[in-house]
Design brief:
Layout lengths: L2 H20 L5 H11 L1 H27 L7 H17 L5 H15 L1 H35 L7 H27 L2 H8 L6 H28 L1 H29 L5 E4 L2 E4 L1 H23 L10 H12 L4 H27 L15 H6 L1
Antiparallel strand pairs: 1-2
Length: 368
């Protein structure tokens, strides 16, 4: 990727960060008070996301290995992952900026076709893991309700029912996409959208063979390389579960203590209480992310996530103030990693011949 294009990505992301700071829902004084209250728990949340991004990059790496020899080092993939998500968060509709950046940066290591297929596959896997994450949350909520821990009123039953239909439909579409490919059908659909019809038709005609090859690579990962497929899915799903600890940290800080017992030594929380608190954190994250992703056209899902946190915490019997506090700390952590990602864009990428894992791409080797 040329320095000019990198600067465009960097300046766009920087502009959006400034806009986010200006439009923050709280004053700078209130924001600083929340940051001071979070203290070292904010540092823990920021560090936790370093682990999550590492898992994301390993998931992407598993997809690349599943399509042939690996031609890029893991630290380089981690850099692309963090910068890509920084652009995802600052781009309307959530995805295009980061995905375009990943394709352009990775293509010099493995070629445009393989870079494109791996990025599309990783994007699919990232979303696919979310559907399974939400399914787990629905089942968990029902189990908690049956155990008497959570309420299951008429409104909540409808929410769970509609969420179940949404997840079932999403999982079905993704399974079909993995079996038969998705890119060709997607481009055909774009070519029918008013305003994009001319461009979409011309692009499909010019790149029809390449699009079909990308679909073949997508289908091959699911049908021929199940180990890489499930390894990538497991890493993405595990990252979603670990993300619950961010809310868990904030709930402890706020003094939310389910399962508290009174003993000779004073008030303590037993192991079951900590587990229940983590389950509640998991449910808050799951239903908030579901609500926020339905509003994915907003940069950083502005407003959608705050509303999701407030609704989720209230449904679990907590005060709206807890949801607001969690959402603000989440924004601060997110802005921190966006800034880190944007700075990483400015760091020069290593040349392909400087990476320890650089070898000919799968297609190049097959043609020798």
């Amino acid at each position: 990727m040329s320095n000019k294009v990198k600067n465009i990505f960097f300046l766009f992301g920087l502009t959006m960060v400034i806009v986010m700071f200006i439009t923050f829902d709280v004053s700078l004084k209130q924001l600083w008070e929340h940051i001071c209250r979070a203290g070292y728990w904010l540092v823990a949340a920021i560090a936790l996301w370093g682990v999550l991004y590492a898992l994301n990059s390993l998931s992407w790496r598993a997809i690349l290995k599943g399509s042939g020899p690996l031609g890029v080092s893991w630290p380089t993939l981690l850099k692309f992952t963090i910068s890509g998500y920084a652009l995802n968060y600052t781009t309307p509709f959530g995805m295009p900026g980061g995905e375009a950046y990943r394709v352009m940066t990775l293509s010099k290591y493995v070629g445009v076709q393989r870079a494109t297929s791996s990025v599309v596959l990783y994007m699919m896997m990232h979303i696919f893991s979310h559907f399974w994450f939400w399914v787990t949350a629905i089942i968990t909520y029902l189990l908690c309700a049956l155990g008497g821990d959570l309420s299951l009123g008429t409104a909540m039953r409808w929410v769970l029912f509609l969420a179940s239909l949404f997840c079932a439909g999403g999982i079905y579409l993704f399974i079909r996409g993995y079996r038969y490919g998705l890119v060709t059908k997607l481009m055909r659909g774009i070519s029918k959208i008013p305003g994009l019809r001319k461009w979409g038709t011309a692009f499909y005609a010019a790149h029809q063979d390449d699009l079909k090859k990308i679909d073949e690579q997508i289908a091959a990962l699911h049908s021929q390389n199940r180990r890489s497929f499930f390894m990538s899915l497991g890493l993405e799903y595990g990252a979603r579960i670990l993300q619950s600890f961010e809310i868990f940290f904030m709930m402890l800080l706020f003094g939310v203590e389910p399962g508290v017992t009174q003993g000779m030594g004073g008030t303590t929380m037993n192991i079951g209480g900590y587990f229940l608190l983590f389950v509640h954190s998991f449910l808050i994250l799951a239903f908030t992310s579901l609500f926020a992703n339905l509003l994915g056209f907003l940069p950083m899902q502005m407003g959608g996530r705050e509303g999701g946190f407030t609704l989720s915490t209230t449904q679990l019997g907590m005060t709206p103030a807890i949801g607001l506090f969690i959402s603000i700390i989440s924004r601060v952590r997110e802005l921190t990693w966006i800034c880190i990602g944007l700075l990483l864009i400015k760091i020069p990428d290593p040349n392909p011949d400087m990476t320890s894992e650089t070898i000919p791409s799968y297609n190049e080797k097959a043609n020798e």
